[in-house]
Amino acid sequence: MPAGIFRVCLVVITAIVNHPLLFPKENVTVLENTQEVIQKMKEREENLRLEQLKLEQEIAMQETLTKPSVKAAETEEQYNHNPLSWNFWTALSMVVFLLIEFWRQDYKEGTWQNYANEEDEISVLGKALKGVVLPDNATLANFYEKCLQIVTGDIARNRELVEGFADDLLEALRSVCNRDADMEVEESIGVGSMYENWRAHKPLACDFIVPFTPPEPYCFQLESWCLEETVSPDKQGYGMIKILRADENSTGCICDKTKLGEDLLCLLHSKMNQARQNQHMEDLLCYKDTRYLDSDQVMTWFQLALTKAWNKISHKYEFNLTFNLLDAPGALKIKFRSGKTITFNLTPVVQYADSDVYFISHFPCSSLAEGPSSSIHWLLTFAVYEKRYIQFISKTLPANSCHLSCLQILSFLHGKQCSLTGASSLTNYHLKTVMLHLLQTLPCADWASTQLRARLQDMLRFLEKSLQEKRLYHFFVGNRHLPEELGIPIEFQKAEPLNLFRRFVLQRDAYRKTMDTFHEMLKNTAALINEYAMHVPNGRVTSLHKEPL
């Protein structure tokens, strides 16, 4: 009996050690053939039988040495019971193997069931657009006129008012700053949907980037991720800003290259001088004990400077100015006595070399979902190039082209859906990226005003495919087919493409929420457009999309 228990334990241990889930094979996606499984089980059975015979012989020899007087009786009894014992333990071994094999099959089915559920959801999403029938061009034109063209008309008036006040506020900011110690603020640059004429929602918030430079004799040394040989995925799209003296050469001093010994001291880089330098760097908004610019300190400095600037010029205006968001450097809100409010954003940035790429301290939360890994990592924004590319490509498109109308309609539909089901990780920045890719790939003639419905469907199809693949590439990074007239730095064009949907690979909950929101938006598209367009009188169609039925 003990020998039998030992053999069963040996069988179980052997099965566990040789189990495929304990040491899985690489790249195995198909279950093993049934005949191969049976053949392997027969081979294992034969090996176990041989091991059993060896164990029986060893036990018999031990019993012979310890009890020679009863050897004949035990041998005869063992001989009489061996066939039955062997059949019992063989059957038990087969049962153990079968149970383990059934458990393995159930485990794999349970594991793959989770992935199957996700694949089923993706397949449903892939079929969702096929079942969506968009309204005709006339209905879309009515919808655009009713809901979006009024917003487009208000953009210019709102933009003119905010621009004048922003310039006055920044001029006051320069006057209250210490030019020998504080950062120097340059002229603001308008970017985003308000300056690209596709804003679809109120409030009509203008976005400005405000370049700044360090005081003399300091300068910025810029470090971009695309210039490094190896970079982690979470650092892609980011860079760091190092502050140096303009006449400083970190490799020019001999103390950096040679060991001076205990009796020699570098007067430029002594420990005392280093401590003073670190203290000065902190005053220059650097991260503690480093030379890298800290975006959090920049935000604090910028908010304090704006507060001082407003206190200086507030007597000139008959409205109040407050911070709209405290976690953004310059999210401001103007409130008139009548109760009307106007919002706008001033965001400090650092220019990358002599280009129009900028390191931005805090990217608007409505544009990108992921934040930087630390306060010394700054995101690179191509907002100026985005505006310039839209202006450049618009000159090659037919008159009254529909590219901005498509983007406005899609942004409106997505915004309405998010107001119903909650915000998702899909943003207007992603929608604009889809439009930019299609502007580059489709012929210019396809963007005529009569093709509004077809192009809107193309944008939905492109977005759907990107969501299925969890891959939407940044338009400028890694794009080697951009016009030379734009002046994009070559290092960004040669860099590896930057996937804006990378977070969906790691965060399944965010991906599921985004898929659900997009799916619901597709189902509600026709009803929502018809609901807003039905109140427009027949024949009252804007010339932008007027066409024969």
TrEMBL record:
It is a single-pass type I membrane protein. The keyword Methyltransferase does not apply. Residues 404-479 form the Mab-21-like HhH/H2TH-like domain. The keyword DNA-binding does not apply. Keywords: Cell membrane, Coiled coil, Glycoprotein, Membrane, Nucleus, Signal, Transmembrane, Transmembrane helix. InterPro entries: ITPRIP-like, Mab-21_HhH/H2TH-like, MAB21L/cGLR. Residues 1-15 form the signal peptide. Enhances Ca(2+)-mediated inhibition of inositol 1,4,5-triphosphate receptor (ITPR) Ca(2+) release. PANTHER family: CELL FATE DETERMINING PROTEIN MAB21-RELATED, INOSITOL 1,4,5-TRISPHOSPHATE RECEPTOR-INTERACTING PROTEIN. This is Inositol 1,4,5-trisphosphate receptor-interacting protein. It comes from Podarcis lilfordi.
